[in-house]
Fold these 2 entries.
Entry 1:
Amino acid sequence: MATVTELLLPVETDLEDLLKDLRVLIGAGHPILQAAAEHLFSAGGKRIRPGIVLLISKALTVDGNLSSRHRRLAEITEMIHTASLVHDDVVDEASTRRGVDTVHSRFDHKVAVLAGDFLFAQASWHLANLNNLDVVKLLSRVIMDLAEGEVKQGLYKYDATQTLDSYLEKSYFKTASLIANSSQAVGVLSDVSDYELSQLYNYGKQLGLAFQVVDDILDFTSSQKELGKPAANDMASGYLTAPALYALEENNRLSILIEREFSSNGDIEEALTIVRNSNAINRTRKLAEQFAKDSYESITWMKDSPYKKALLNLPEYVLGRLY
Amino acid sequence: MATVTELLLPVETDLEDLLKDLRVLIGAGHPILQAAAEHLFSAGGKRIRPGIVLLISKALTVDGNLSSRHRRLAEITEMIHTASLVHDDVVDEASTRRGVDTVHSRFDHKVAVLAGDFLFAQASWHLANLNNLDVVKLLSRVIMDLAEGEVKQGLYKYDATQTLDSYLEKSYFKTASLIANSSQAVGVLSDVSDYELSQLYNYGKQLGLAFQVVDDILDFTSSQKELGKPAANDMASGYLTAPALYALEENNRLSILIEREFSSNGDIEEALTIVRNSNAINRTRKLAEQFAKDSYESITWMKDSPYKKALLNLPEYVLGRLY
């Protein structure tokens, strides 16, 4: 089983350049934003989103050479992603993300608002200057979906009556839309056919959904140490994901615990046990497997290359995080 | 001397429709955003920015009829403006704006971040769907300038060595860019000549600068009751504007007070007296008059109409706030 670093090896140098560019772009001329940029774009992050953009870009060329517009698109993708994380952490009052301090806990929420706005603004400026209206539309749709997802997520907090469809819609808005639309945007810049455009979109969409569903399983099955946050942290915060929603179909006791917002002692532990002892994790894993399979099958038409190989391995890598 | 309501009379119904649309657009489906939208887009605001867009739009038509794209542009202008205000208030920790509670003090800073992001996202989505790359570029430049201005403003806090040019640049970023670029964008949608495009830009730029400079004078000359905030509030917060910068040229004592951040008892009152007793207010007024004159002269080429008349009266109205 390859690691993500191994998978992204064909674009490793490009990703390093990209991080360097982003640090300069964001930090220039402002000491506090510079510190925030160092913090956000330091080495060690997985950068899977710009990695996908770069891999698709290279897979669609004849010679594996990247144009400056393809590089810029990868940067824009990472800027939008990072901006939305920084603001989400303010809205969700998260103090750490994957074990690392968030901007608003390391600095304060004012710096986080400023840094996020600055990133969004840079993204929208560079986006306009790619000079392609279709790409502008695809990525502005992403910005809209991210905001919509954050709003929806707040709306469904502790709502035991929400459907699996509304959970998947939220997951699309918050995770899959960026990967789907930026994958399609690569195709627009590379002038591929309409069929291939829709397949690129589908590759990103299904991969993004698989990624989110696997993340939601890990929230229940991993330990605090592995997650960098307490187990079942999402559920405890009121964010109900696929495992909780499936478990609700089997066990009515769970909805009582959720509706009283886990306010009694031991509620969270009891809820965690209910989910773990149900068939929910199994069913959620099947869901992730279906998304990963659909993602894989969407790009079999690409001509063979190390980039295509990495892209085909990504869905399996996403599932592999479960084992 | 006309009031702003009288000046905007030729587009009064259009502005009412616009506010109704914005409340629906932002509030739909989310109770807290709906409350924030009601708060932000309630009657009583001056809506001078979309008013200018609508007046120019009508002045450039043959029959005074607005296209849906011109209306949408006016909405986008107000969305971007409102989003930046909501986030600025978080960054500046302002609890009131013109005497009214800010979103983050009425609700909390999390709602303010979410509402601002949602507005920016809606703006960028509707912008892309105007289907005109030039308009996208003009308005994404605005979003960039607003973020840059907010960053710069923080950077120059309590900096008595900053130049008048850096103050004017900041004022352009934070106030004039939106009016200048949206005025030009109307011209793009209305297909006017390159000369007229640059004149529309200049009209908005000079008007925006006049507006900001007058605001900065009022901060020193008005009472707390008139301002809805304490007099010399900007200076006390470390934001040095034209009157303070001119006064610094005359009186070295002021720089001592600024550099110790008005930390001793009576510092603010002493600084206020220095500025008021200097020639600074007078010089700043002359600056505003020049901007207003330049603005007026930029649109004399328009054919006569009630809309042109209102646009020509706006620079004078801006100066009139001083008397």
Note: DSSP finds 17 helices and two strands in chain A.
Entry 2:
Amino acid sequence: MAKELTKRSENYSQWYNDLVLKADLAENSAVRGCMVIKPYGYAIWEKIQAQLDKMFKDTGHSNAYFPLFIPKSYFSKEASHVEGFAKECAVVTHYRLKQDPNGPGVIVDEDAKLEEELIVRPTSETIIWDTYRNWIQSYRDLPLLINQWANVVRWEMRTRLFLRTAEFLWQEGHTAHATKEEAIEETIQMINVYAEFARDWMAMPVIIGSKTESERFAGALETYTIEALMQDGKALQSGTSHFLGQNFAKAFDVKFTNQEGKQDYVWATSWGVSTRLMGALIMAHADDNGLVLPPKLAPIQVVIVPIYKGKDEMDAIYQAGEKLRKEIAEAGFAVKFDHRDTHKPGFKFAEYELKGVPVRLALGPRDVASGNVELARRDTLEKKVYPQAGIVDVIRELLDEMQQNIYKKAEVFRDENTYQVDTWDEFKDIINNKGGFVMAHWDGTAETEDKIKNETKATVRCIPQNNPLEEGICVYSGKPSVQRVLFAKAY
Amino acid sequence: MAKELTKRSENYSQWYNDLVLKADLAENSAVRGCMVIKPYGYAIWEKIQAQLDKMFKDTGHSNAYFPLFIPKSYFSKEASHVEGFAKECAVVTHYRLKQDPNGPGVIVDEDAKLEEELIVRPTSETIIWDTYRNWIQSYRDLPLLINQWANVVRWEMRTRLFLRTAEFLWQEGHTAHATKEEAIEETIQMINVYAEFARDWMAMPVIIGSKTESERFAGALETYTIEALMQDGKALQSGTSHFLGQNFAKAFDVKFTNQEGKQDYVWATSWGVSTRLMGALIMAHADDNGLVLPPKLAPIQVVIVPIYKGKDEMDAIYQAGEKLRKEIAEAGFAVKFDHRDTHKPGFKFAEYELKGVPVRLALGPRDVASGNVELARRDTLEKKVYPQAGIVDVIRELLDEMQQNIYKKAEVFRDENTYQVDTWDEFKDIINNKGGFVMAHWDGTAETEDKIKNETKATVRCIPQNNPLEEGICVYSGKPSVQRVLFAKAY
């Protein structure tokens, strides 16, 4: 069958690409580095969006929309931000095309050159803080708790579907506060929201922690991250939340009158997750047969496949199948009855396995006669026969169990692939040969961090939240260290 | 008070601008022609989106996402499309900035020039049909019923918030069909979906019809439109649905094998509505006091405002208000209890009137004592006292009634401002002095259409659906005509 995947053990990277394409999640477009998110992939993204949006609103945030374009000069206003973001980006220089006088087609109209070039937003701190200046006068205008769902563009040279694309979809929260404490609280609240979403919806355990200075967001005083472990032993940064201090307020002159009547600069945070989460979802759970979707994010939670020969058999099965579909739909589950006569049951089984549909019900003539149905669960691939009566209760319990089970499996994998390492030889051996999370002592200098990265490609993923202090010596430099930090190779 | 609006009768255009700004719907950004949609405006847009999205899904469509950028050459592939869309647009020519060697700031890196310029999508037919080529082989792959929610850019010279902006948000449906008949059916289905949404959700009566050849979408064989009448007597095109024939399939070589085993080009439709609907919503219903929102699209349907002096009064009122808030929220309505002590009741009354909140409950010490509450409805500004007990039922009925009433008021206005006109003098008089919809005979030629437009700025808005045939003579040319068509000045 054309849909067969490369095995993970043969070529993990090829397996991932195969899966994204063959499960109809996304594909490369004709435009370098830009992806097309196909309907099935987008349906998963919509489920991710809906839940995150609810969690943002439950914590008091509102959505808004800011311009796609940012004047070039804005990037220079915050010194470290320009270093991080204004380099590889899409630059709009003209606003008109005209007929080519020398042949068919259109050419850029040189008379329509912009006075100042516009950058397609790689992130929106600058344009948003430029706007906030007019929205904030007094402490009564604070906090300002705003989120935006948007597309952004970063001109990446090596792209991979969902993981690193020139254009991607994301949300970016941008909040403004009267005090430093409140801004820090918000930063931490949002990284916890992301971790909760990863755990309860994506069934993905993550390590919450803070970034080292060299891995921080350009312009941030502190960056919190959630780091997940993929099945090939590499880390995937899945969401970040930044405490920006007063840097952007100073760069864009955003002051407010505080309760004592004094002027002060506003405190800022920003936080975001992107379509990269789709990559995380795939690589955390999928197997050699295809996607394994946590039931809470599955666009189709239950599929019913009829097995029949000829029209007579089909009629009876159709009735039984339709009755099941209705019952399951009325109970609030996303169910599909695939009674297409253009494809064989075997094809459909493989198709829904590939697409990670949690529960498959197969319904043949014997099932109709006996009042039973065969149920296959995607996570363990186990099959079992149940009476049709009461199947909704079975499904309800099973989907809950699968959501837990998928999480536990990922957690066991993560724990089994987390190592406490005390020597440089062991560090290199694990990073190069096994992969996984390595907890090791580090002397806290950017210099050592850099050297470790150059020699092994491993980076400090984070200093875990509530990390126990423990005296030790840096695995690389032998200098004193007060705590272990989390190292890994990363996407 | 700073929030006072210009009156409609004084300066309609200024009234609109004032209202958009003062009701916190949107504002101009630092980027020419691009708007910031503020949280309150965006909350209305989210309600519009949610309902349309449901209606699209109920009619079998799925969402997907296609690239923001389109290679320049794509626009030349469909001959009439390039004329309509590839002119005023944002052109990306470079993909990198670098530090300015001559000073602070960044400049465009001339070494990073794209081989082919990229256009920020003004609409996505070309990139989508280029993608569909690989998705469609057989009639089994059809129909393809896809929608995209996205931002698009058209470099408009004269912009107005929501009505005409360089960047705007929209949805664009792009469907592919095996037969002409099915594609036409889809085109009509979707204009009817828009009309139903306008009527039942926006409380806005519209005329459904088809565009004349000169007003059609660039590349379409037929364009259907819904036209609404604004309070200043101008029409606002509120949604369009296009039958594209095989034009894009031929331009991008999208063929399929039909049931007879023969190759044929695929039939196409596209349809869209945008943040322009926000402009329509404002201008259809708002008054000199501010927005009037149909309850179904109001982010806040009920606001409770306490009226008190000092802390003692406040404590009792707070308890009663909070009890009301809970009851109303539990009944499923969007309710806000505004107990801020930083603003006076009068300020709050004006604020929520300006923002078009349908129902306002005012709660003072006497109300708490008597168990009553004063209710004000936004559409008629009537006030009436009700017992607090049973207020939820009052609100439920009232919101329904207001939704109907707002529609009826707009319908009466539309009908009173629709004229059957038979002479050129009368035509000019009404168009120039009264405004409104003018039903007049037209000879069916683009030449006459052009002359009428040049002399009066009125255009044929549409040939109404199920238009009765009626012999007559063209108001302008005196030539024979078979039907009246709908003329108006338009946004």
Note: The first helix of chain B runs from residue 12 to 22.
